[in-house]
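Late entry, written up from scratch paper. The run itself happened at the end of the previous shift, but nothing got recorded in the book at the time, so transcribing now.
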Amino acid sequence: MAAAPAFGYIRITEVMSSSGTGGTADWIEVTNYGTSAVSMVGMRMDDNSFSFAASVALLGVTSLAAGESAIFFENTATTAPIAAFQSYWSGLSGVQVGYYN
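Output as recorded:
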């Protein structure tokens, strides 16, 4: 019997609109349900333009291991305040956090 091939299979598993004044920007969680790592290099997202040309790159996370999730938040600053995002949500120890803008 041949072994099943390894594959990556990602889904958007959670979406959060801005948590208001003093909170955080919009964010999405992406989970790899596959049996092998998935490269996130070149992955893009689009909020609502329905145009690939208007989509933006997902930055700060290069790959997701099998079973791993990562969070990407909207960042309009010139630098990505990843530590501030992690601090606000606490409990994100060990979770990869990236951004898009």
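The two ends are 47 Å apart (CA to CA).
(Scratch paper discarded after transcription.)
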